Amino acid sequence: MNAPTRIAEQIADPLLIAGRAYRSRLLIGTGKYRDFDETRRAVEASGAEIVTVAIRRTNIGQNAGEPSLLDALPPSRFTILPNTAGCYSAEDAVRTLRLARELLDGHDLVKLEVLGDPDTLYPNIVETLKAAETLVRDGFKVMVYTSDDPIIAKQLEGIGCVAIMPLASLIGSGMGILNPWNLQLIIASAKVPVVVDAGVGTASDAAIAMELGCDAVLMNTAVAKAQNPVLMAQAMRKAVEAGREAFLAGRMPKKLYSASPSSPASGLISPKAA
């Protein structure tokens, strides 16, 4: 249940996840919108090709006779990324993703998140590691939500996760990137894509994540709860693209008390000549 596979060489600067190439580096969630029509319009405005679906909260066929998200976002156009939002144990998360694989005809790319408590939605790392081991062993390609701990990130990569997804700040908080240094440590050592997940509030947050060197950004609440979700989705698309281009361009070094004129300092016109 994936959009058609593309060859990486056909895309300039592709995002590569589990052997598949994507043009967009913005991943977007499908919860919290007013209805499936608003979801569709926001996703289309974002340009996202990978959309996350909370299996425990969204109908993708498990509730016969009810509207299905797949009617609004067909798998022929989008890569559906089932996630385990609302799971608080490894056992629950594994069971949820096995159900998703059945519903999506053997689909194996998934997003794992195991939460620690309902107030902060901070990840339970012990249960996350346990679930990741089981899912990788079962043949799943696991993109994993985690804390911004670089040691844990390496452990998850070592288990075989295909993408590491550290939080920028708490889920749904809109607080932006609170610890850019830890994110840079994760990015520097990771050999799989690093996708900022959770905490993005506005376009500048997304741009900063990309400027740091993250491979992609995943968001939901920042778009769905904006006053104009479709317009915010469009803004996020531009921010991710601009942040990526700035990263690739390489910013000028920061200098304290080192003024540098923006125009040449040589060959100045002499006042006497005037």
Describe this structure in words.
- The N and C termini lie far apart (73 Å).
- The protein has 274 residues and is α/β, with parallel strands linked by helices.
- Strand 4 (50-54), helix 2 (69-72) and strand 5 form a beta-alpha-beta unit.
- Helix 1 (36-46) runs parallel beside helix 9, helix 4 packs parallel to helix 5 and helix 5 packs parallel to helix 6 (180-189).
- The mean pLDDT is 90.
- 35% of the residues lie in helices and 15% in strands.
- The strands form three sheets. Strands 5-4-3-10-9 form a five-stranded parallel sheet. Strands 6-7-8 form a three-stranded parallel sheet, with helices on one face.
Task: List the defining traits of the structure above.
five-stranded parallel β-sheet, 10 strands, 274 residues, globular, 15% strand, 9 helices, 35% helix
Helix and strand run:
EEEHEHEHEHEHEHEHEHH
Spatial separation of the terminal alpha carbons: 73 Å
Low-confidence runs of at least 5 consecutive residues: none
User: Major sheet: order of its strands?
Assistant: 5-4-3-10-9
Shape: globular
Tell me the number of strands: 10
Strand content: 5-15%
Helix amount: 25-40%
Quickly count the helices: 9
* CA-based gyration radius: 21 Å
Q: Output the structural class.
A: alpha/beta
Mean pLDDT: 90
Reported for the largest beta sheet, the result is: 5 strands, parallel
